[in-house]
Structure formats: structure tokens, C-alpha cells
Amino acid sequence: MNLRKFVAAIVAIVATGSFLCAQTFNNGTYSGVKIPAKPDGSIKFALMSDIHISVGAPSEKSTAACVEDINKNSEIQFVMINGDIANFGYDSELESAKSILSKLKVPWFIIPGNHDNTWSESGTNSFSQIFGYERYEFEAGGYKFIGTPCGPNIRMAPALVPKESMVWLEEQLRKLPDDQPLFFANHYPLDTSLLQYDKVIELLKTKNTQLVFSGHWHVDKPMDYEGLPGVIIRSQLATPKKEIGYVVAEIKGSVVTFRDKIVGRDSEGDIWFTLRMSQGKPYPSNVIYSHSANDFNTCFPNVKEVWRFENEADIGSAAAIYSKTNQIYSKKGFNAIPSVKKGVSEGDVVIFADEAGMIYGLDALTGSKKWSFQTGGKTFSTPAVYADYVVVGSSDSYIYCLNPKDGRLRWKFKCNKSVLGSANIYDGVVYIGASDGIFRAINLSNGKLRWSYDKMNGFVVSRPYVDNEQVVIGDWGNSLYSFNTKTGKKQWEWNIAGSFRNYSPAQVWPVKSKGKIFVVIPNRVSYAIDAKTGQQLSEIYGGREAIGISPDLSNYYIKSMKDTVRAYSIEKIEKIIEARQKSSGESSFKIAAPEVTAWQTLTEIKYDIGPSPITVVDNVGKDGKGLLFVCTSRGSIFALNCADGSVAWQHYISEALINYALPIGTNQLLVSTMDGVVLLLEYDSCNEKLQ
To answer: pLDDT-derived band of residue 148, with 50, 70 and 90 as boundaries?
Structure first.
């Protein structure tokens, strides 16, 4: 380095240090950093994304190699890391990433992606705790940089910028001068894979947004988001050519260029994208971009909203209902949250918990707020109602028991890590799993531990099935467990040999019929498991986590990842298993779906990965055999006739995952959505689509 470059580098370092003195960490936000341009007015920075740290894996070494390579380049002024920091959301992975990235000698800014938030044992809390924030805003050379986190949080669904961060983004843009150039960063591209992408684009178009940075696809790719220029950044992981690297961006005048820097090579690669920034808006102001509208609600006008509550934060669990006089509990075989006998009535309370850590009670007749209770962390646990008690887990590591009438605390129980699982209360005992590898049974009346099992392989996010014989629950460690209801003794543990964590039976709510447990897992296969022994009996291709069971327990329902809903006949499954066992002596069999399908329906669900349980209501619909309700990850509910799968009605609510559709009586549904909506629907079960 010649003397001139050395002096310039020292000046830049000193200046950067003085500007960093203004940095603040507040409520999950990193603010206040101002990085000056170089003496020639240019800015040069590094971009990393999708580093996917697993402890002890090659990703640690490759990330460290990138950090070392960046540190050798005195031209780089800061680094942006665009999500998917951890491979599976474990605290140890995030801590390892922090240790490696902290060796950077220049300022660096980081946001989480879906791998950090969807599979997060902490309930997305650890990212902020370890890095100090989950969103950022800073300035470099007069340009504004803003980065937001990206879910989905805990639940499998399309990506979503959490409502709290959308509100924060709006606030940042309001304060931003109209002529200041803006660069925006988000892990997911701003396309249809991101729920409410149009709202993000509309916000960004209110200001002088020049470029959008994303990751997720693991490739270098220029993008156009309805007129907004964008770039997707490669992963630092080795390519098929075994090239570990990152991207170097440089702003000179009105031109931004992007090159790959491969670790081990002296020079940067060729420019793969050049953007000439505009002096004003970078998109045609006279172009209107159309977005498809959902016409479900005009086709089925007799499905109406009784009330709608718009929450201030996202909701990652079902809404429950409490009734002093009309409470009913699910029948044996079902794994459904309690409901009420008829429609909602005076004194009934709707209860839900949100990602801001609040638990709310709403008047069930009007949807108006009655009470609220603040926990110390984010909540993804569905409230469990039993008698005059409601139990909710929080990512602050506590299980809370409240009075459902007024929200007053009855007791709380401390766990060792976050409690993301939902409780099932049976015969006065709370059954719930946590992220500390422990499943617990707790006395409902006083919050005292009854029994615990402390050798679970992963963290728990779902709700157990419970009856007199067993408690069945899955975890993110590939296992499904059965415990003795009274003693907690492990009866069996089921898993798929050679499977990996992403295929765990973690989000499915198990159901039971004729001595068999039924689950569906992300490998798109449903399984029948002997309830007493844990022996796998059958596997049928079709479905992904969403499962339900018919009112008469004769069929179980699955939703495929595209359009199809099926009812599998349990009697047919039994007959095939029995016949094959006699002829072959084997114990487990693959069964072709057509052999056991009671009915199959093609719907307008389209591509869908939502894990929300399929719920049912009896004595309505065709032949009085009931209706089943299928929730989608893009805000729609489909009501099908249990008799033959025909569509009774369908209704669109919002753009995000519907967590649960709780039948109330025979013509109402209580619904919550991931983007913060709680509502009560009323329907006519004899609806027919208007032509």
C-alpha cells in the first residue's frame, strides 16, 4: 500500500470510529451509525448471506475464511449479512456465528432469515439477545440503509415481514427526507414468496429507494420488483466448484457495481451487475402494478364476519374461547382446543397471545378488548382453556396460568428455556413441552410439577394428544413420543431412520383412532403408528403436517401441498395391514393412496405449506355428516363436506397463514391469522357457490 492509500485508510478508520460513537441498541433496533464516504466520494462494502452455521460443520470454517478475507481488504468500509445465519435456529449456532463475525474489523449489520426464525428454539428471541438487534438503520456516504427481519416465525408458512417491523419501517420512512437515496435489505426477495410483498413495495416507493438487497436463493441475480431494482446475493457456502466467497459492492457516482470475491484469490471477479441510480425515483411513476384479488367472498355471500380484531403484532397461534356455562372439550381421538356448545354468548371470552408477548381477552360477542397480560417474551403458544383456567407458554421461559375472565395471574412455572409448545389440559393436569428438552405434566390448580421427562431430542412447538392411556407429542429432534398419562414413563419413541431435523413430526397435532396414532410430517407422508407399542404400521404418500379426523373417527384428513384434500379410510388401512401381515410377516407397509382414499377433492387452495390442523364440526353439512375446515398459508379457509369432500364454502380473510379455525356451535368459526387478525365468522352450512 502506498503512502497516500495508507493515510486515506487511517482517516477513514478514525472517522468511522467517531461516527460509531452514536450507535444505539433499542427494542430490537440498531441505529445511529454514520459511515463517511471515501475521500473520492465512493463507498465499498461486502455482502454476505445464507451462511447457515452449524456447530462443527464446514460452514463455520467457510464463514471464518470470508471474515479473514474481508479483513485483509482495507477498501471495504462495512459488511451487510442478509439472513439465514443459523442452519436450524439453535442458540449455539447463533452464538457461533456471533463469535466468528465479531472478528470483522469494520462495522457490520445483520438481519435474520427464515432459518433463524422458523426453526428457533428461543421463539426468535435469541437473535436479538445475541446480536443486540434484529433490524437496523444506518447511513453510509449520505445513503440510507434499512434492514428488516423476515419470518415466518416458528410456523411453516410463506415468508412475512413481522407486523412490528412493518410499523417500524413505516416510521423510518416517514423520517427519511424524500430525496435521500435509500437501500433496503430483507432476506427474502420482494416477490410472491413473501406475503404482503406488495405492501413492502408500496412503502418503499414512497421514498427515493434505489436498490433492494436479498438472499435466500443462494445465487447472484439481478431482480426487478415492479420497477424497483434489486439484487439477490449468493451464499458464502462453497459452490459446486468449491468456491467459498462473498459479494463486493461499490458505489461510484451514480453507478453501483457487484462482483464476487472468491476466498483465496487475490482479486475480485468480473462485474456481474451494474446499476445506474436515478436522481429521483428509480421506477416509472406513471405505471400502476396490478395485484390479483380474491373473489371467494363474493361467491359465498352467506359467510360473514361477525367482528374482526386487528392486533398490533403478529399472532403465531390459535385463538381460544372460554365459557362459564357452555364449555365443551374435544372427544377421545381428537386433538382440538375446547369450544362452546352453541354460538358465542354473553360472558364468553376469546383469548389469544401474540408475538409481542401479550395475552389478550376479548368479548366474544363484540370482539372488544376486555383485558391484557404482558409476558416477558414472544408467545407462540395456543391458550389452553379448562374450567376457570387458561394456560399459555412464553419464550421468556415461563408457563403462565391466568383467570380467563379477567386475565389475572393464578400461577407461573419456570422452565430452563423458551416455552413455544401449546398445552393440552386433561383431567386437571397441564401437559406441555418446552425448548429445554423437557416435557412436563403440571397440576392445573396450583402449578406444581406432577412429572417430567428430560431426554427429548429437540424443542417442542406443537400440542400433545392426551387421553387416559397416553400423551403423544413430537419434537424438532426427529422423534414422536408416547408417555404414560399418570406417571410420565416413556412408552415408546418413534422416528424415521436416517431422517434429518427438517422432517421431524414437530408441527403436527397427532390424532388417534382404533388404537392407532396418525401423523403427517414434512416429507409429505402420513403414518399410522400402533398406539400401544409405537410400531409403525403404514405410510401413505400425501400431506404435510396438517391433519384432522372425522367426527365418527372413520377417516383422517390430509392436505397436500397443491390443491388436493383427501380422506383416508382407517378401516381400509386396517384391512390392508392385516392382510399383508398375514401374507408377508412384515410389520410396516407402504400403501398407495388410491387404495385407501374414501374421497379426494381438488380445491382452489393452490400451493400450500401451512401446518395448521384440520378441524371438524358434527351434525351439519351434506347428510348431516359434518364439515371439515382446511386453513391455508395465504389467508383462506375451505369448508368441505365430510360426506364426500365437496366444497360447502370458502372464505378469504387476510394475506397470511391462518393458524386455526375453531368451530363454535354449528355455524360459527373463531379464527386467528399470522398477520395479527382475530375474527368470528358466521356461515350457513348449506351454502352453494353463486354462478
So the answer is: very high
Helix (H, G, I), strand (E, B) or coil at 537: strand
664-670 contacts, C-beta under 8 A, 24 or more apart: 664/321, 664/339, 664/340, 664/343, 664/344, 665/339, 665/340, 665/341, 665/342, 665/343, 666/342, 666/617, 666/619, 666/620, 667/343, 667/620, 668/306, 668/343, 668/344, 669/629, 669/637, 670/319, 670/321, 670/350
Residue 241 binned pLDDT confidence (cut-offs 50, 70, 90): confident
What secondary structure letter does DSSP report for 53?
Answer: B
Whether domain 296-311+614-691 has CATH 2.40.10.480: the reply is: yes
CA dihedral sign, ordered 504, 510, 513, 514: positive
| Cis before 152? omega within 30 | yes
* Domain limits, the chain: 3-269, 296-311+614-691
| In 176-248, alpha helices (H) | 197-204
pTM, two decimals, is 0.92
What is the tens place of the pLDDT at every residue in 509-559? 999 999 999 999 999 999 999 999 999 999 999 999 999 999 999 999 999
The answer to whether the beta carbons of residues 153 and 178 sit under 8 Å apart is: no
d(CA 359, CA 177): 38
Give the angle 469-618-614 at the CA atoms, nearest 5°. Answer: 70
CATH class of the domain defined by 3-269: alpha beta
* Residue listed under C-alpha cell 418413534: 494
pLDDT of residue 5: 45
